Amino acid sequence: MDALYTAVATATHGREGRAVASDGKLDVQLAPPREMGGDGQGTNPEQLFAAGYAACFASALGLVGRQAKVDVSEAAVTGEVGIGKQGEGFALAVTLRVELPDGLDGETGRALVEQAHQVCPYSNATRGNIPVELVIE
């Protein structure tokens, strides 16, 4: 693969530190969520992953929609990233909730969402590694 763009970010002190992009456009305080014993006073890696995956999937949906000449510009994608214990470590699970525009439901909507799942780089990276559930709302 020849990269068209490479994002660079540095995190310090793990879940209780800071994450900063090399261009300074992202600079967030990190903190574990209350559910994991933290104070919840910062963002966490799961939120960042959920936001990135949702944005990427929405872009992939826009691409396949344009190719099919179907307007999906009003679609919204919500990413849910769960983390839990698995053996000695931890594992992730993702649910993508896709809200399609009015009038775009049924087989056409489902087909576009499935095509987007084949195109999206996040979907390709996670396929076979973590469960990803697609929910059309």
Walkthrough of the structure:
The protein is 31% helix and 28% strand. The protein is an alpha+beta fold. The chain has a 3-stranded antiparallel sheet with strand order 1-2-3, with no helix packed on it. Strands 4-5-6 form a 3-stranded mixed sheet, with helices on one face. It is globular, with a radius of gyration of 17 Å.
Set out the fold topology.
Elements: E1 9-12, E2 18-21, E3 27-29, H1 45-67, E4 76-86, E5 89-99, H2 106-119, H3 121-126, E6 132-136
Parallel strand pairs: 5-6
Antiparallel strand pairs: 1-2, 2-3, 4-5
Produce a short descriptive summary:
Helices cover 31% and strands 28% of the residues.
Dominant shape: globular
Proportion of β residues? 25-35%
Spans where pLDDT lies below 50 across 5 or more residues: none
Q: Supply the number of helical segments.
A: 3
Q: H/E order of the elements?
A: EEEHEEHHE
Main sheet: strands, sense, barrel: 3 strands, antiparallel
Total strand segments: 6
Radius of gyration: 17 Å
The secondary structure category is alpha+beta
For the termini, the CA-CA separation is 34 Å
| Secondary structure: helix percent | 25-40%
Question: Mean pLDDT, rounded to whole units?
Answer: 96
Strand order of the largest sheet: 1-2-3
